[in-house]
Amino acid sequence: MPRRLAVPELIPAPMEGSVPKLDAFFHKMIALKGSDLHLEQGQFPKIRLHGDLCPIEGEVVLTQEAMNALLGEIASPDAWERFQHTGDVDFAYALATGERFRVNYYFHFFGLGAVFRLIPSKVLTLEQLGMPDTLKKLADLHSGLVLITGPTGSGKSTTLAALIDHINTSRFKKIVTIEEPVEFVHVNQKSVILHREVGLDTLSFSSGLSSAIKSDAEIILVGEMRDRETTMLALTAAQMGILVFGTLHTNSAAKTIDRVVDIFPMDQKSQVRTILANTLQGVVSQQLVRSADGTRRFAAYEVLLRSIALSAIVADGDASKLVSEIQTNRAMGMIQMDECLGELVRNGQVSKEAAFMKAIDKVSFTAKFGVGAVAS
Predict the structure, then answer these.
(1) pLDDT tens for each residue of 19-56
(2) How far apart are CA 206 and CA 223, in angstroms?
(3) Which contiguous run of DSSP H or E holds residue 368?
(4) In the CATH hierarchy, which fold is given to the domain comprising 126-335?
(5) Does domain 4-119 have CATH number 3.40.50.150?
C-alpha cells in the first residue's frame, strides 16, 4: 500500500479551451525528437534522447506541489483513484495536435514519479524498422505462440504493431489486442481489429485473453504475459489453433523459454514444457543500440524459429542447445543477438563499445572485437 501522505486530491481537469501545463513538456520532447519524458519529485525533468537521459535546460527541480499539479491535471478520476490504491497506474494521453503518449504514474522513495513515452503516430512497416524478412513468416502463421522480447524501451510494441499491420494489409482475420494501455491504434483494412485496454475494457490481461478466446478471434496480441494465469491462457489459445503474439522482458531465446517455464510451480513445469514445445513458433529478442554518430538507434535482434529439433529441445529443457540450433539454421533466418550486433559493428552503424554493452556473451564478443577493456 503506497504512503497516503504523498497522494494529493485530484486536480480539476483544465477548462475547455485551456491547455494542461504538462503539454509544454511534451512539445519540448517532440521538438527535440526524444522518446520519453521523465518527471520525478526532487529531480529535474528529463528527456530520453537516443538512449541517453538528459535534463531539460532551464527547468527547475520538481517539488511535490509541482508534481501534484502536473500529474493530477491529465489523469481521469478513475485512473487517479487506481493510483491512490495501488501506487501506480498506466493509461494513454493525447495532445490536441494528435500525438499520443503511454503514461505510467508511480511512487518512489522521495514521492511521485511519472514516465511518458511517445507513441509514433504512424505504424512503421517491418522494412522501415530494419527488421529481417523472416518476421513476415511469423506474421503469416495460422496458429501457435510467437514471443517478442526485450528490456523496457527496446521497441517491442513497435515491432508488434508492424506485425499486426502486415497481417491487417494482407489477410482477412479477426485480431484482438489486449494492452495496458492501448498504444498503436490500427484502422481496419483487410482484417477486423478490436483493441481492448486493461483497466477500461477488461479487468486484466487474463480476463481479456479468456474473453478473446471465446470471441472467435483468430489472432490475439497479449501486451504482457506477466503472470501464471495469463501465460497458461496464452499457451492454451495457441494449442487451440489461435495465433498468439506475446511479450516478455528477456534478451535471448534461451532466457525466454526458461522464463515461461519458471513462472509455473515444479509440478506443472513438465506439462508446460510439453505445451510450449508443441506451440512455440518463434522468439524474437531485440534491443536498441545507439548509432555510431549518436543521431538514432538501431535494432539488434535474436531470432529463433520453429525447426525439426526445436520441439525436442524445449521439451527436454536443455536451453543450452538453442545456441547451436540458431547457428545451424542461419539459412532459415535465425540469428544470434551477438552475431547481429557484430554485423552492426562491421557495417559501421554502431560502435564496438556500444555493441559490447548489449552483447550476451561478452567474453566471446571481446575476443572478436577487442573492446572489453574499453567498454568496461
Answers:
(1) 788 999 999 999 999 999 999 999 999 999 988 899 99
(2) 11
(3) helix 362-369
(4) Rossmann fold (3.40.50)
(5) no
